[in-house]
Structure to design on (846 residues):
């Protein structure tokens, strides 16, 4: 069973075609990359998959379930988590609470139990707390547990976003420019982190990125977008020598 | 002595309204100018049920809460999908609608003359117990999944929905809870001040609830309660500056927002655990 | 020429005289003009800074009282007082911006804080006037002969005609400023993206101050007209909420929509009040707004705001 099947999705914003007939298939345990010049529609694809925008046409299947019409929170509950191009951490929740938030869909107690603080609630909360602290340690963030996210250095904020996405227990992880703003050393750390989490959690991952060394190193398949259309697809070596891709990035004079 | 008791009773009742507003505005970031509408609904439902239909006092109160919650649900359906500013304005509209309806249905409500002669069946003990229970509920909600989700919704609705939070559903729960609390307070109010009329609680009073919540610190239940007590008792105890009380409130709020924008109390909460040093607490 | 219905209908028969209806309609549209002014004054700030500026009500109230004092104690002339009030309104708008919004805006305050401050400011003004001048109504001294002008069978009070004429003139002038002058274009550009004016070589703080100046001017005229027609009391600032409602119906974000909605609101309200009374009218209007927003959350001419991830 394929984790993700996207068939011919289109999105138009008031006359501007953002995504034009995009299609892809993602197998389990794969790391795929989506690249393309700025404005090519990469983030829009993520937004369409996660239900932020409705598709104009086309279909999206997640583990053989049609998620095209579903709302974002249902899609996340089914097992797709993501990070954002511009970091979207919850500024009024501590680092630890940001993690706990993502686990919310797996918490079982009800509203009434919450209101009276039924014993199950206390137990659940302790479990969530321990799990969150474990994730923090895994990402080297344990000493920031009580801080607020926007007080952290930028690189750590990105890491926190990644940790938070993982807390949701996804089968498919969408990373939107995880390397943006990171220096080369941090990029290498990020590469190892992504490979680790993929291995440890048996995840499927799709990465939108501009940092070529990252994409080429960790992705098995790469899709290239330009002006909303896919212009190439293949293994990293193939993409590196693809004329259409070079032309898209470097212009006509190649 | 009776005067001071009355002041305390009214102050505590207002604190119930502030708690309702805290849930909406402080925790979830919904700005409602219609809380006054629910006070009136609660007060009138209870009074009419007791005086005109001769229902038992507890039944009248329960009915008030029920009616308030149902109306909260009905109002919530169209309004909770709206952008924050639209929501603010339609809740204002709701408040005005309630007042207009109360004026219009004069047969039932006494119109502009209101309803007089409500017996004083509510005393300070009942009010204090109510505050304690309501605070207990809200505090529990705040420190579990519900509270985290609400703060997330307040901070970033889009990211919240992408974390699996059903934003609309949560807002509805908050709205209904808040309406229930506010209607409850309104019902008690009728049996404390013994006379109710439609102009009792207009948009300005609802606005004050929002403002007091902000001054107290939108992340702090304790702050909201303390600010409420200070404001409402202050004005009553110093009657001669009563009219200037609101001016002072407004000025101090403006100063606070300019110089300390997280509110006076920020995120600080009164916590028995912290005082007695029993284990760690993650906010 | 409308035929005049000369026979008298029995009460409760449901037949309303055409001329009465027209009169109500015209009065309503004149008030609607004021709603339109309020909607635009509110909408300008909303478009640029993306928050609901409730302090506009405070500006209206201050100018209404100011107009009263000027005309009662200094110079009982319609035009002069109007001009003075208008200019004062503009300056108060700028002062409000500098004192209440700029300090927190520069510290990167979230929009909710701007909103709370604006509500607080409105409360401050209203309660200040209630504290100092009491709850009394202050009627403006008469500034012109209360004559009626006759259009066909309709007798319209001169006050309403003037109100309509003034609001029409102001709105036309404003349209010109927004479309043809550099600062007006910068203002409109800033609505789309707050950084655009600096690309045009205009300081964004100046554009914001100018926006508040215009809103203040509109508020001044509104305050004066409201005070003149209804007399001044501390709650006059709350009257502008009608205009804000018009702004929502028209679709926040579209000044033209707000205008039309204001006129519509005035006309419809006037006719309804004549038919079913004031309190029922309020209920009907608010219920209609609920329904409208249920079907079309962005209002008549507003744009759907799309969140960007």
């Amino acid at each position: 069973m394929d984790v993700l099947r996207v068939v011919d999705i289109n999105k138009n914003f008031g006359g501007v075609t953002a995504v034009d007939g995009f299609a892809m298939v993602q197998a389990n345990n794969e790391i795929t990359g989506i690249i393309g010049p700025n404005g090519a529609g990469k983030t829009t694809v993520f937004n369409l998959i996660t239900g932020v925008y409705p598709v104009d046409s086309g279909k999206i299947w997640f583990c053989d379930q049609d998620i095209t019409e579903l709302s974002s929170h249902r899609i996340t509950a089914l097992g797709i988590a993501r990070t954002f191009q511009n970091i979207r951490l919850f500024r009024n929740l501590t680092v630890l609470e940001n993690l706990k938030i993502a686990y919310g869909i797996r918490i079982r107690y009800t509203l009434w139990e919450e209101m009276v603080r039924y014993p199950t609630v206390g137990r659940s909360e302790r479990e969530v707390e321990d799990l969150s602290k474990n994730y923090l340690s895994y990402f080297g963030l344990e000493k920031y547990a009580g801080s607020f996210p926007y007080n952290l250095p930028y690189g750590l904020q990105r890491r926190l976003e990644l940790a938070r996405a993982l807390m949701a227990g996804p089968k498919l992880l969408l990373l939107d420019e995880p390397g943006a703003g990171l220096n080369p050393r941090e990029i290498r750390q990020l590469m190892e982190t992504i490979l680790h989490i993929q291995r440890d959690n048996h995840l499927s991952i799709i990465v939108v990125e501009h940092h070529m060394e990252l994409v080429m190193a960790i992705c098995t398949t790469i899709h290239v977008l330009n002006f909303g259309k896919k212009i190439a697809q293949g293994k990293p070596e193939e993409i590196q020598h693809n004329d259409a891709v070079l032309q898209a990035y470097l212009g006509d004079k190649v | 002595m009776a005067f001071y008791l009355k002041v305390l009773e009214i102050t505590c009742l207002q604190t119930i309204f502030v708690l309702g507003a805290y849930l909406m505005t402080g925790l979830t970031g919904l700005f409602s100018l219609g809380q006054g509408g629910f006070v009136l609904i609660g007060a009138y439902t209870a009074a009419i049920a007791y005086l005109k239909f001769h229902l038992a006092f507890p039944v009248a109160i329960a009915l008030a809460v029920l009616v308030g919650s149902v109306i909260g649900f009905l109002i919530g359906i169209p309004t909770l999908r709206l952008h924050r500013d639209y929501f603010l304005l339609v809740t204002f509209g709701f408040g005005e609608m309630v007042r207009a309806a109360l004026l219009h249905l004069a047969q039932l409500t006494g119109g502009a003359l209101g309803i007089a002669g409500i017996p004083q069946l509510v005393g300070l003990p009942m009010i204090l117990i109510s505050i304690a229970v309501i605070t207990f509920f809200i505090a529990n909600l705040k420190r579990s999944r519900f509270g985290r989700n609400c703060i997330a919704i307040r901070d970033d609705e889009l990211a919240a929905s992408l974390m699996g939070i059903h934003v609309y559903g949560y807002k509805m729960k908050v709205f209904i809870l808040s309406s229930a609390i506010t209607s409850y307070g309104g019902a008690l109010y009728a049996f404390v001040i013994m006379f109710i009329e439609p102009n009792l609680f207009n948009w300005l009073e609802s606005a004050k609830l929002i403002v007091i919540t902000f001054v107290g610190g939108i992340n702090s239940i304790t702050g909201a309660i303390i600010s409420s007590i200070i404001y409402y008792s202050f004005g009553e105890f110093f009657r001669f500056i009563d009219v200037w009380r609101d001016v002072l409130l407004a000025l101090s709020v403006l100063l606070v927002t300019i110089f300390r924008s997280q509110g006076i109390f920020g995120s600080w909460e009164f916590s028995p655990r912290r005082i007695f040093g029993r284990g760690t607490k993650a906010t | 020429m409308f035929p005049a219905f000369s026979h008298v209908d029995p009460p409760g028969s449901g037949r309303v005289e055409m001329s009465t209806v027209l009169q109500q309609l015209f009065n309503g549209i004149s008030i609607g003009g004021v709603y339109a002014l309020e909607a635009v004054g509110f909408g300008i700030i909303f478009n640029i800074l993306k928050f609901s500026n409730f302090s506009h009500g405070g500006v209206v109230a201050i100018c209404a009282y100011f107009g009263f004092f000027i005309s009662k104690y200094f110079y009982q002339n319609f035009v002069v007082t109007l001009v003075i009030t208008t200019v004062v309104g503009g300056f108060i708008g700028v002062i409000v911006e500098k004192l209440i919004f700029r300090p927190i805006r520069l510290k990167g305050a979230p929009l909710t804080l701007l909103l709370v401050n604006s509500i607080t400011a409105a409360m401050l003004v209203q309660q200040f006037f209630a504290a100092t001048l009491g709850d009394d109504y202050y009627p403006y001294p008469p500034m012109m002969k209360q004559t009626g002008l006759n259009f066909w069978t309709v007798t319209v009070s001169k006050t309403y005609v003037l109100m309509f004429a003034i609001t029409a003139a102001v709105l036309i002038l404003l349209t010109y400023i927004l479309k043809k002058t550099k600062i007006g274009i910068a203002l409109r550009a800033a609505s789309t993206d707050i950084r655009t004016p600096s690309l045009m070589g205009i300081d964004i703080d100046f554009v914001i101050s100018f926006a508040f100046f215009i809103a203040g001017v509109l508020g001044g005229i509104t305050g004066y007209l409201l005070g003149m027609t209804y007399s001044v009391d501390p709650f006059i600032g709350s009257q502008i909420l009608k205009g804000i409602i018009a702004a929502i119906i028209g679709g926040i974000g579209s000044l033209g929509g707000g205008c039309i909605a204001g006129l519509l609101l005035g006309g419809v309200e006037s006719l309804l009040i004549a038919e079913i009374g004031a309190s029922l009218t309020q209920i009907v209007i608010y219920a209609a707004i609920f329904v409208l927003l249920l079907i079309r959350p962005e209002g008549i001419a507003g744009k759907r705001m799309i969140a960007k991830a």
In short: The two ends of chain C are 60 Å apart (CA to CA). Residues 1-13 of chain C have pLDDT under 50 and may be disordered.
